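Lecture 7 notes. Example A: sequence first, then its structure tokens.
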Amino acid sequence: MASGPGDNDEAAGRLALSGLFGFVLLVPPLITLFSRGGPVLGVSRLWLYLLVSWSVVILLVALFSRRAE
């Protein structure tokens, strides 16, 4: 499949958007919401939130990278 001139710009935009999404997920005001409360299944809510949010960002980057190929 031939790639057009705007494909790299579109892929770069998607990757930048996933980076911005990751930044928003990890800002301190949002993190403090999950530092309160008891554990979930024996795991601290904060650690669970960090693990899930980091995994989502990695999956987004992987998905966007595959689309760019």
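Example B, a different protein, same format:
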Amino acid sequence: MTTLLSSLKVIARPEIAVKPPIIGKRTRLADKLKQQLDMAECFIQGSEFEAYREKSVKDPETGERKKVRRRITVRPWYYDSEGHYYFEVRIGIKPIELVKDKPAIDVGDKSKLPDTIKLIIDAVEKGELDEFILKAAKFPTKKAKASAEASKESKSEAKSDTSAKTTK
């Protein structure tokens, strides 16, 4: 070995523990809540909220891939009723129910929106909403529903074929 490489400390590759999937879901929800916080602060100040997402696009002339910032539409999770504001924590498009049949959080005045959202972000980061995140993740998607229906139909067809063969 050369003298430069001998000065390095070489070890066996350490085992890397797999992180539980809830950590990624928790982080994603916290990011969405921070976006809602920025939107609420812009709403209170009276300025326009703009959110961007980076997208990789192929240049038609050169064929190179470039990252381009595209503006995205973000819908607010807060709403008002006669000047009184409410906030809903959402996973996807569904609001999560923090208490049975009660998904809305009573905020009151719109100036309290940022403080309420900050409190929810802290709760998410500490893992207090993990059970709600996991419960929301168990809802079947359209794709899962379609595949479940297709498998039911194929099973019922298979049963009818076998019963027809046995009666002959």
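Note on Example B: The beta strands are 51-58, 65-72, 78-81, 84-88, 90-91, 94-95, 104-108. The chain has a mean pLDDT of 83.
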